[in-house]
Amino acid sequence: MLMVTPQLRINSQRLRIDFDQLSNIGATRQGGVSRVALSNEDMQARSWFADRIEESQLSLRDDEVGNLSGMLFSRNLNAKTLLIGSHLDTSPNAGKYDGSVGVLAGLECLRTLRDAGVPLPFHLEVINFTDEEGWWQSLFGSMGVTGMLAPHHTNDSKQDNGPFRAALFRAGITHQDYYKAKRDVNSLVGYLELHVEQSDRLERHRHQIGAVTRIVGRTSYRVTFYGEAVHAATNYNKKRDALQGAACFITDFHSLPQNFEGGMVNCGNLEVQPTGVTIVPSRADVTLELRHADPQTLLQMQARTVEMAMHCGSCYNLRVEVEELLHRDVAYMADAIIETIETVCEEQGFTHMRLPSFAGHDAQILAPFTPSGMIFIPCKDGISMNPKEYTDWQNIENGANVLLATILKLAERA
Amino acid sequence: MLMVTPQLRINSQRLRIDFDQLSNIGATRQGGVSRVALSNEDMQARSWFADRIEESQLSLRDDEVGNLSGMLFSRNLNAKTLLIGSHLDTSPNAGKYDGSVGVLAGLECLRTLRDAGVPLPFHLEVINFTDEEGWWQSLFGSMGVTGMLAPHHTNDSKQDNGPFRAALFRAGITHQDYYKAKRDVNSLVGYLELHVEQSDRLERHRHQIGAVTRIVGRTSYRVTFYGEAVHAATNYNKKRDALQGAACFITDFHSLPQNFEGGMVNCGNLEVQPTGVTIVPSRADVTLELRHADPQTLLQMQARTVEMAMHCGSCYNLRVEVEELLHRDVAYMADAIIETIETVCEEQGFTHMRLPSFAGHDAQILAPFTPSGMIFIPCKDGISMNPKEYTDWQNIENGANVLLATILKLAERA
């Protein structure tokens, strides 16, 4: 049984210096950051992170999928490991907070515990997961740790992954060795991740901390409408206009959440062929995704999406193909961790609420593998993946302290 | 006054051989042709056409914008010139008939008249216009002949025209010299063009020949919707989704012809940024065009289009920009030529009708410059700009004979 120091707090100023330095790596003119996975900027951020780990006298660790960690070892060398982390990669011209906050707060917790000389019943590992955002393969690093990667994620059987392999090679990652990154499930205590909410529920409810209950399931599709390329002056009843079918579908599709409370949808892209202004489009590819916190409702939304696509296709006499690009199951956070976060909030006087995460996170990959939990802090106007992404510094300090106290509570019980 | 040989007919077999040879240049697997302007295939077609002109003992002529002609001279060296032609260039993977029929039938008319030794009161010139289809600059060749080209058509003030200039250079065309291609309006008698209809009115009305009354006016726009790139999981009321605005607009826009009888519209392309499936699109560019045979109605359609774009933009809280890409006025064929075509049809026993052309042609550039006329032949199912584009050989033979007889009637009156 560990002796807890209830008043132990992270060093906010030290964390702030890290945050400001990291925000400069890949900074964009609009005030955001671009550190797409395995880019020069991402490599620079990793190198910077490795320096912080070493200067903090923590041990550096990396694995076969490029995850980079700092280790604070328990005196018990046979102890299990508690993972804390997130990711340093970003989408292009995204915000400074998404991912970074989780990694840097994790590092700060390790430093605080080391400085305080708190003996730990587990090893504590702050981890930066490779390519959470999916520039190449979403959640690549966490999938590596949990053994979910397969050869097709890097070979060319599904698509041309040559540039991905080249980027891995440049980062010193031998893609064939991905399977060696899998951790022994018995070696882990669990996983904790601090993150900005990326939606505005905490802000609207004026809560300081969110205890994530689950991460929504997500399915993405490519819906392709095939018509016929004919001259724009062709008689109307002879036209089979793929773009009109796609436009009809996009409008219908966005009405889905009206019938499925809590559902979220997005069409992120539409590509047209042949593209000439005097030619009726013969092909339109729509890429979209659906999210819901309830697996059954997500399935119903998927079925309705396919129906809508077929209906819009038939209205314009088009052939329709629907290809599933990705599916992620609903991921459940561990009850014990949710309750621990709530207890910590009560003890520290933070207002809090339970909420599902609409956005994907490494925690959703870890959750079926090891008890996992996520701590959310408010996100101004709910805007993220945008240079405008913002949270008050006080929120980051609060979140880091909740993370620290949660680690200590888990240590108490270990 | 010329002595007419009413029974003079073109040599259908000789024309057929030409047609089949030309169809092989740039033939595609789908049975269409790709001879985009100034491409290797287009250059090969020009070279082939030049050989046909020379082997027919006609005189070869070219000009500073790459138009290529065969000349059958009048004995009166001071005579004016009657132009007959169309274009050998095509859209990518388009049909075999669009353009080719007009050029080859013109050549066949010259050969037939030369073989028959018919004395002509004007020089007869069969002309292949450069880039009718607009791979680089639509109607480039006819605009050159009529003096409508300006420096901005080839320099980089409006867009990067470097590749266009390179293609012109490779074809032996010095772009600065475009103005030298302008013909003296007093040197011309008129312009005749035979073409497949590219719509199905002749087919539906079971008419063999169409006498084109006018070519519709055409306006094309780029409509850009600006929203905000945020994470797909952002609260719905915070989303400003450019693609939803564009989809709303595309659907509305295609309803325009319901309120403007005889109007035709097309959206040929839509481009989205940033394209990630988990990011709400911040920008959507729609390129579209409107056609109408009545200039006032076209103006009303244009105004309504802009209103619709603004309305859809406001529904999704988007900024909207509308840029006019191109405007072509309604072009009127000369009454005397329309009537001559009708007289010829009556004399030769072809069923016929007057009709406007929904598609653009070199004749629309020539019409304000010199008395012009177009002869349409049926187009199967109204499908063109597609490998399926088809017309019975008998239609081509009919059209070429109407062209020949129209030339002879104009010669009678000259």
Topology:
The structure is a homodimer of 414-residue chains.
Chain A (H helix, E strand, L loop, with lengths): L11 H12 L16 H16 L3 E4 L5 E5 L8 E6 L13 H17 L6 E6 L11 H6 L16 H9 L17 E9 L4 H5 L3 E7 L1 E10 L15 H12 L2 H4 L4 E10 L9 E10 L2 H21 L3 E10 L2 E2 L2 H14 L3 E6 L4 H5 L5 E6 L15 H21 L1
Describe this protein with a few key phrases.
homodimer; Aminopeptidase; Alpha-Beta Plaits; 13 strands; 34% helix; 22% strand
Would you kindly provide a written description of the structure presented here, covering whatever features stand out?
- 2 copies of one chain form a homodimer.
- Chain A has 2 domains: 12-215 and 332-413, Zn peptidases (Aminopeptidase, 3-Layer(aba) Sandwich), CATH 3.40.630.10; 217-328, Alpha-Beta Plaits.
- Chain A has helices at 12-23, 40-55, 100-116, 140-145, 162-170, 201-205, 242-253, 256-259, 295-315, 335-348, 362-366, 393-413; strands at 59-62, 68-72, 81-86, 123-128, 188-196, 209-215, 217-226, 264-273, 283-292, 319-328, 331-332, 352-357, 372-377.
- In chain A, 34% of the residues lie in helices and 22% in strands.
- Chain A starts with 11 loop residues before the first helix and ends with a helix.
- Chain A is built from 12 helices and 13 strands.
- In chain A, the strands form 2 sheets. In chain A, strands 1, 2, 3, 4, 5, 6, 11, 12 and 13 form a 9-stranded mixed beta sheet that branches. A 4-stranded antiparallel beta sheet of chain A has the order 8-9-7-10.
- By secondary structure, chain A is α/β, with parallel strands linked by helices.
- Chain A is globular.
